[in-house]
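Here is a protein:
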Amino acid sequence: MNAQELIDTARALVADDKGLLAMDESNPTCNQRFASLGIAQTEEARHAWRELIVTTPRLGESISGVILYDETIRQQKKDGTPFVKVITDAGIIPGIKVDSGAKDLAGHPGEKITEGLDGLRERLAEYAQMGARFAKWRAVIAVDDCLPSRGCIEANAQALARYAALCQEAGLVPVVEPEVLMDGDHTLARCFEVTQEVLRTVFSQLYMQGVMLEGVILKPNMVLAGLTCPKQETVDEVADATVKCLLRTVPAAIAGIAFLSGGQSGELASARLNAMNVRFKSQLPWPLAFSFARAIQQPAMEIWQGEVAHVPAAQQALLQRARCNRAARRGEYNSAMEKT
């Protein structure tokens, strides 16, 4: 492990008011999104969509890193140029999703454990050789009046910490993603309580596994009421609750925080990130950035529809959403930008 290289990469991922573009959807998830828009669910269509993303002109002005899927990191443009080279030439850092998905947690009905530690050391070495400089692992935490259990939180936190230690051993910056899900009717206060407990446990496990925090990016959820909760707080109330929770739980040493969108609309995710940076940026020990998937991709996918003729317009929509999020990092976003 070269500690300084890890620190430099982690800092670069959250520098210059940029953020991450997550394009690491598994094949089944990507196919589901295609199906909802009438796009063919084929490897050819997935390749065309991902080539559209990585060849978007000027994407590197707003995006510092992209998270790839195993299929994608091995793909090439039609002219034979590897996607990793296209990304790197655009001034963007390539990353890779390395977990193998959330599975039912034995003895804990309704809860999940993320798998993929078996063989991870070897896979990380291969991805590093292919040009990846950071990795991502997602844990999912369901919420209701009784969940999550302590067993679920501990199991997922330990897996995240073991993954992070293996990443740093391989010279890759770990993006640590403990996602408290938006599904359900829980209140913002309940989300705050659970997120606080999850983050405290995750950092305890990272410490126990000897992970160097200066070489880590945290990818948390925002503190939000559940999607079906009757009371949905204002943008400023979400910003206040989220930052309060992070200040109570996240060590100052961490390189940066890049929020997941987690099912929020692109506009809401940008507005909430903007409010946090407007209200708190000068007071925080770490930068608040973004690591969005659908909240950047969805408008472009709806325009593209699998049609070659729609590629330029789709790329423009993708670039515009990326620019909106860079503006949110600066505290300069407003809804009028969506119409530009």
Remarks:
- The chain has one domain: 3-331.
- DSSP finds twelve helices and ten strands in the chain.
- The two ends are 45 Å apart (CA to CA).
